[in-house]
Amino acid sequence: MSYGDVMSARVRSEERRAEIVRAALEVIAERGYRGASLAAVAERVGLTQQGLLHHFPTKDALLVAVLQERDRWDAVPDSPWRTDLLASLVEYNAMRPAIIQTFAALLGESVTEGHPAQAYFTERYARVRASMAAVLRTEYGDRLPNGLTPERTAPLLVAVMDGLQYQWLLDPESVDMPGAFRDFLRLLGEPAE
Q1: First and final CA of the chain: distance in angstroms?
Q2: If I label 19, which of 63, 83, 161, 180 is the partner at 20 to 30 A Cα–Cα?
Q3: Contacts of 20 (CB under 8 A, 6+ apart)
């Protein structure tokens, strides 16, 4: 087998894996992780379950790939975030309900004992809170106008972002997720100059 053939096979395999991850996102959004089956994902991409297992040997391995892919889409740049960029992220999320629905379903299920995504979400939230505290510290300094430290405010900021997502998913006509998040930012007060 030539180098070109090997590279072509590798590219096809990566494309197939990406297709499987997209299908898994859809199935999890529709049924939740526990209700999603490898057979349903395989059927959606025109594979047998054995064919899918060639790419992802377990359902947990597929879940990890789904979560990693979602994080790649939401990758935070190396440069410091600002709260106005967070508002832009909320607006972006409002344009992709299936991704937000999948995240919400997995997050909700992950609080149950033994869920394979529990450690992932625990670690993710620790990183996100630290990142949000850094954003707040950059804009406000050691204290926000309300007297709270960035570390005390960061969990509230994350809770508002995620809580708005749940409300918006349940009633998108009544909940203006980007507008409500901008309102919350106004409640934080004006950043330090």
Answers
A1: 63
A2: 161
A3: 41, 45, 47, 52, 55, 56, 62, 65
pLDDT tens column, 137-184: 999 999 999 899 999 999 999 999 999 999 999 999 999 999 999 999
Distance CA 71, CA 78 (A): 14
pLDDT digits over 105-133, tens only? 888 888 988 888 888 899 989 998 999 99
Q: Which residue is listed with tokens 């025109």?
A: 46
Work out the number of other CB atoms within 10 angstroms of the CB of residue 56. 21
CB 76 within 8 A of CB 85: no
Taking CA atoms, 70 is separated from 101, 146, 162, 188, in Å, by 12, 34, 15, 28
Helices 3-35, 97-110: axis angle to 10 degrees equals 60
